[in-house]
């Protein structure tokens, strides 16, 4: 039995389609107007983008959305825009029913739950806080994003284990991405690859997990 479970979001707890067909287009459409309406809040983000790629930072950010770039400035700005959408009721965060049931069961059993996603911590809290199943944030003990490190590098998982205060071997990581699973395994975490299409993963749903 793991002492803690660390989960990815996109393709793991939540539908990839929700992210690509709802969240990304919502942010893309509203990005220029949001930046114009919030100059003080977005100025540091735009400066980081311009430092990474010279040119119009808004155009760069729009292209990064189209490329699904895992860049911290983009993820931070997307989270700020999505906050408006969640609070206005434009959408709710999609969470698979099997994931909701398992997360509640694990929490009740005393297993600490954490999230590691390329989306910002703020965006993660919004998704779980405004989910189809209601506010799920009380189930979680902490959140990690790309400010901790890249999801495909073992050092990130070592850092997470240190922050949690557990030996990596006592943590189970769940993801739909083989490269992330490999990185977590290299850091000595327990891992399960989920493939909701029933392919070559270790599990198809959270209901397949004995913990």
Helix and strand topology:
Elements: E1 4-7, H1 16-37, H2 39-52, H3 57-67, H4 72-88, H5 97-108, E2 112-116, H6 121-129, E3 142-144, H7 154-164, E4 171-175, H8 178-186, E5 190-193
Parallel strand pairs: 1-2, 1-4, 2-3, 4-5
Q: Quick one: CATH class of the largest domain?
A: Alpha Beta
Give me the CATH superfamily of the largest domain: HAD superfamily/HAD-like
Query: How many structural domains can be distinguished in the coordinates?
Result: 2
How much helical structure, as a percent, in the residues? 40-55%
Mean pLDDT: 96
N-C termini distance: 6 Å
Largest beta sheet: strand ordering: 3-2-1-4-5
What would you call the quaternary organization? single chain
Query: Count the helices. How many?
Result: 8
Low-confidence segments, given as residue ranges, are none
Q: How many beta-strand segments?
A: 5
What is the fold-level CATH name, i.e. the topology of the largest domain?
Answer: Rossmann fold
Question: What is this entry, summarized?
Answer:
With 211 residues, the protein is of the alpha/beta class. Helices cover 50% and strands 10% of the residues.
Q: Can you walk me through this structure?
A:
With 211 residues, the protein is α/β, with parallel strands linked by helices. The protein has two domains: 4-15 and 93-208, HAD superfamily/HAD-like (Rossmann fold, 3-Layer(aba) Sandwich), CATH 3.40.50; 18-88, Transcription Termination Factor Rho, Rna-binding Domain, Chain A, Domain 1. It is 50% helix and 10% strand. It has helices at residues 16-37, 39-52, 57-67, 72-88, 97-108, 121-129, 154-164, 178-186, and strands spanning 4-7, 112-116, 142-144, 171-175, 190-193. It has a five-stranded parallel sheet, sandwiched between helices. Helix 1 (16-37) runs antiparallel to helix 3 and helix 1 (16-37) packs across helix 4 (72-88). It is globular, with a radius of gyration of 17 Å. The chain starts with a strand and ends in an 18-residue tail after the last strand. The model has no long low-confidence stretch (mean pLDDT 96).
């Amino acid at each position: 039995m793991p002492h803690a479970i660390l989960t990815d979001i996109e393709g793991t707890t939540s539908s990839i389609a929700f992210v690509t067909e709802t969240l990304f287009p919502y942010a893309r459409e509203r990005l220029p107007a949001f930046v114009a309406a919030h100059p003080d809040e977005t100025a540091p983000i735009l400066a980081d983008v311009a430092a990474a790629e010279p040119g119009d930072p808004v155009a760069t950010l729009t292209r990064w959305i189209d490329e699904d770039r895992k860049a911290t400035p983009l993820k931070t700005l997307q989270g700020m825009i999505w906050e408006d959408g969640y609070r206005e009721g434009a959408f709710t965060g999609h969470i698979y029913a099997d994931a909701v049931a398992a997360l509640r069961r694990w929490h009740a059993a005393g297993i600490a739950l954490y999230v590691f996603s390329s989306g910002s911590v703020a965006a993660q809290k919004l998704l779980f806080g405004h989910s189809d199943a209601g506010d799920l944030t009380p189930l979680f003990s902490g959140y990690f994003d790309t400010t901790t490190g890249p999801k495909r590098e073992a050092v990130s998982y070592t850092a997470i284990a240190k922050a949690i205060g557990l030996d990596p071997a006592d943590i189970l990581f769940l993801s739909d991405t083989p490269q992330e699973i490999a990185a977590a395994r290299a850091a000595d975490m327990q891992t399960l690859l989920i493939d909701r299409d029933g392919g070559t993963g270790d599990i198809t749903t959270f209901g397949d997990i004995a913990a």
